[in-house]
Amino acid sequence: MERDKALKIVEKQLTEHRYVHTIGVMETATYLAEKYNENVEKAELSAIFHDYAKFRSKEEMKQIISEQKFSPLLLEYNSELWHAPVGAFLVEKEVGIKDHAILDAIKFHTSGRPYMSLLEKIIYVADYIEPGRHFPGVDEVRELAEINIDKALIKSLQNTIMFLLKKNQAVYPDTIQTYNWLVLEGGRTI
Amino acid sequence: MERDKALKIVEKQLTEHRYVHTIGVMETATYLAEKYNENVEKAELSAIFHDYAKFRSKEEMKQIISEQKFSPLLLEYNSELWHAPVGAFLVEKEVGIKDHAILDAIKFHTSGRPYMSLLEKIIYVADYIEPGRHFPGVDEVRELAEINIDKALIKSLQNTIMFLLKKNQAVYPDTIQTYNWLVLEGGRTI
Question: How far apart are CA B37 and CA A97, in angstroms?
Answer without folding.
Answer: 60
